[in-house]
Design goal:
The chain contains 9 helices and no strands. The radius of gyration is 15 Å and the shape is globular.
Amino acid sequence: MDRDAAVALWRRHNDDEALFRHALSVEAAMRHFAVRYGEDPDYWGMVGLLHDIDYQSHPDEHLKHARSMLAGAGLPEEFIRAVESHGWGLCSDVEPKHIMEKALYAVDELTGFLAACAYVRPSRSVLDLEVKSVRKKWGTPAFAAGVNRQVIERGADMLGMGLDELIQETILALRASAEAVGLKGSL
């Protein structure tokens, strides 16, 4: 499956543009980490793009329908398993084992947190977002309250990197796709 087909598959099951920007953000982060780990950025990117394939239609049963949607499109077991693993401990029993799964687990929630951090900046941009600004918001439970910070911290541990490094690398990934993911702001 190429990227155009993956976008068409996503759109067959979803029409929410905010959710699509999130999918694009996770795709960008996964592409970035694939390069870092010497893996295929196109494949990892598609996993990121399609990770929430069933969320809009089944928010209360997230990842309970993803397998059938992805298998029906002919995607392989390792792809489906990676998608299922991003909800480990939340809505899935599939523990992230492969480096791709660990990366997806780590960046899914983090991309949302970084978007929230960018949106409250005067620039409304990720292009001038720095780790220290993110860390200031990190300790404020009311800020982006829906983001599970423990998942992000656990994901950083799984990847063997510090939280600041994970944040920095994910910011860099989002900067590379800032316009596409709606985080270019006024810069």
